[in-house]
Write a structure and sequence with these properties.
Blueprint (H helix, E strand, L loop, with lengths): L1 H17 L8 E2 L2 H7 L3 E3 L1 E17 L4 E4 L5 E6 L6 E2 L4 E7 L8 E5 L4 E6 L6 E2 L6 E4 L3 E9 H4 L7 E6 L2 E13 L7 H4 L18 E9 L10 E18 L11 E5 L6 E6 L1 E5 L3 E6 L6 E3 L3 H4 L9 H9 L12 H51 L11 H6 L1 H6 L1
Antiparallel strand pairs: 1-18, 2-21, 3-12, 3-16, 4-11, 5-7, 5-10, 6-9, 7-8, 9-11, 12-15, 13-14, 13-16, 14-15, 16-20, 17-18, 19-20
């Protein structure tokens, strides 16, 4: 029973590291090593997971929301109220034109805004001559824009109308916009006018265009505050698939080749120790990677510094020392706990040493006691012999007086 309990405790203590399937011992760092590698951890969590594709895009004005200011008669500019970025309403007076038609004085005409919007371009100056064929200013309703994205044809062909995209603009990095897919572009290519169907680029006569393997995709982008402008570069995360309650980790945590994906877990009991755990990964987006097997929710994985742990196995702290300090008892060099048999053997060995030492001590005492006894007997015998020699003149038949026996030290003792 005792052995079974000890085995169970050993299994629990080492199971965290052995779940890594390859039985790789943990990487044990010093406190300074953790600081030098800038180790950071994050929990394994379940959350809604978006499978995305990253692409660059470009905003363009919606053709139906563009308008131009022009004159039906030739003339000369007498007054100009047009500035770039100006918000105008329909029929607002913008340019006062003096006609070239005969008259005294010459007739004057106000050119007004054909639609509400923002003035994006101006080609009129005070006193400049005007011809009916010229566009004096462009007005665009910016409350909605097109976002044109070029994607690989294999990806674009799988997208459907209504697909969402999260959009960031380098000029406004703190803001996130949502765009909705409308349709595939009229033609493939970098030219946004071609994508909008306003101008068709020449096609090669010998068949497919092998130099251009992309397809243009048009998204609708809301711009209620008219902050965005046509021609702005956008960073797009196109959501190809959505999953709910998916187990995932930050992408920084995943290490290794596609055949050897693994992460590093923070050891639950050993300080500054990290366990290498193989994992099976699924889909990924820009931030997170889906985990199919190998981890559980709330496991703490190393994010920043995980790459360095692959090369940090040469720590001065051994696995045995780390386990001894964490668990409060001794372990073998491979990290396993010392079995009860080895402990009993050590106890018996110590007991045998103590017994042998006691026997030797008793034997030494007996030997010393025997020597002391023999020495005492010899001493007494010598004293008797010397006493006999001193009293040789006395006849052996003459009895010793009682007073003489009492006052002689040796005899008094024997008496």
């Amino acid at each position: 029973m005792k052995l079974a309990l000890l085995f169970s405790f050993t299994t629990i203590a080492l199971s965290y590291g052995n779940e890594s399937h390859d039985h790789t011992p943990p990487v044990v760092l010093t406190e300074m090593g953790v600081k030098n590698l800038q180790i950071e951890t994050a929990p394994v969590t379940k959350a809604d997971f978006d499978v995305t594709t990253f692409a660059l895009g470009r905003t363009e004005a919606i053709p139906s929301r563009r308008a131009f200011v022009s004159s039906r008669i030739p003339g000369r500019v007498l007054e100009n109220r047009v500035t770039i970025g100006q918000q105008v309403q329909k029929d607002d007076p913008l340019v006062l034109l003096e006609s070239r038609l005969p008259g005294n004085p010459p007739p004057q005409v106000w050119l007004t805004a054909p639609a509400a919007g923002t003035i994006l371009s101006v080609k009129v100056h005070l006193g400049s001559p005007i011809e009916p064929t010229e566009a004096l200013a462009e007005i665009v309703d910016l409350r909605s824009l097109y976002l044109i994205v070029n994607l690989p044809q294999a990806v674009a062909g799988k997208l459907t109308r209504g697909t969402k995209a999260n959009v960031h603009f380098p000029l406004r990095p703190q803001q996130t916009h949502e765009a909705t897919l409308l349709q595939l572009a009229a033609c493939s290519g970098e030219d946004p006018l071609c994508a909008l169907g306003l101008e068709v680029a020449p096609r090669p006569l010998n068949g497919a265009d092998t130099t251009n393997a992309t397809a243009g995709v048009i998204f609708a982008l809301d711009n209620p505050n008219s902050e965005l402008r046509p021609g702005m570069t956008a960073e797009c995360s196109i959501i190809r698939e959505q999953k709910t309650q998916v187990l995932s980790v930050p992408r920084l945590a995943i290490q290794g080749s596609p055949e050897d994906r693994h992460v590093y877990l923070k050891h639950p009991t050993i300080e500054h120790a990290f366990v290498r755990v193989p994992v099976q990964t699924g889909l990924s987006n820009e931030q997170r990677t889906e985990i199919l097997a190998g981890l559980e929710e709330n496991d703490m994985v190393v994010t920043r510094g995980s790459y360095s742990l692959d090369y940090a196995g040469g720590s001065n702290t051994s696995l045995k020392e780390a386990l001894d300090a964490a668990h409060g008892h001794e372990h073998n060099e491979d990290g396993s706990e010392k079995s009860s048999n080895s402990e009993e053997h050590d106890h018996e060995h110590d007991h045998a040493d103590e017994h042998e030492h006691a026997d030797e001590h008793e034997h030494t005492d007996e030997h010393e006691h025997t020597d002391a006894h023999e020495h005492t007997d010899e001493h007494e015998h010598t004293d008797e012999h010397e006493h006999t020699d001193e009293h040789e003149p006395m006849s052996m038949s003459t009895p010793m007086s009682t007073s003489m026996r009492l006052h002689h030290p040796a005899r008094a003792k024997n008496f």
